[in-house]
Structure formats: structure tokens, C-alpha cells
Amino acid sequence: MELVIKTVERTLLVVIGIATVFATGQEIYTLIIMKKVELADLLLLFIYTEVLGMVGVFYRSRRIPITLPLFIAMTALSRMIILQGKGSSPENLIYESGAILLLALACLIIRQKSI
Questions:
Q1: Where are the alpha helices (DSSP H) in 1-115?
Q2: Phi-psi region at 89: left, alpha or beta (left = phi > 0; alpha = psi -120 to 50)
Q3: What are the pLDDT digits (tens) for 71-107?
Q4: Does the global pTM surpass 0.70?
Q5: Could you say which DSSP state residue 88 is in?
Q6: Exposed, middle or buried by CB within 10 Å (0-12, 13-18, 19+), for 47?
Q7: Rounded to an integer, what distance in angstroms lies between the CA atom of residue 44 and that of residue 24?
Q8: DSSP 3-state of 63
Q9: Which of 7, 17, 23, 35 is least surrounded by CB atoms within 10 angstroms?
Q10: How far is the C-alpha of 10 from the C-alpha of 97, rounded, in Å?
Q11: Rounded CA gap, 78 and 70, in Å?
């Protein structure tokens, strides 16, 4: 049973890696066609890079540090704030920025505990 789980896990990580590379290619193609790069686009490419990095770290160490998904979540929330623009309600901005702050504090606490 353990072998099946490890095989499925590795297969899914390969699929995630391939899908991430494909999505990155699509995004870069779109940027070239549109001839315009915005901050939200750069943050999306950064998220893709972090996902690939997380897959790479897993293959090197056989574990994923908890801070990597937290960084991805912070970047995704930042991108969401940027995409919503000025039309978003102030309450949502406070909630989203509060969530980023909580994630940053969690990263800080985790790093302090691991030292």
C-alpha cells in the first residue's frame, strides 16, 4: 500500500510540474501577444515559479517545507488584491491584507521555531 501511495504522489507531482510549465508557457505567450506586462502577470509567473520550486524541493528532500505553500498563498492574495482594483469594497481589502499579515506572521513563527 505504501508503494502505491508513493507512486501516486510522484505521478501527481510530475503532472503538477508539467501543468505548471504549460501554464507558464501560456502566460508568457499571452504577454507576448498582448505586448503588455502588468504587476498581476508578474505575480502569476512568480506563483508558477514557486510551485515548480516546491515540486523541486520535494524531489530533493522528500518533504515540503510548510513555508513554501504559505509564500504561494501570500502571493496569490496579493495578486487577488491587485486584480480587484479600486472597485473592491474596503472591508475585503482589510480582510485580504489581514490574511497576508497572518500568513507572514505564521512564516515568521515557523522560522523562529526551526532555528
A1: 2-34, 39-61, 67-84, 90-114
A2: beta
A3: 999 999 999 888 887 778 889 999 999 999 999 999 9
A4: yes
A5: S
A6: buried
A7: 9
A8: coil
A9: 35
A10: 34
A11: 12
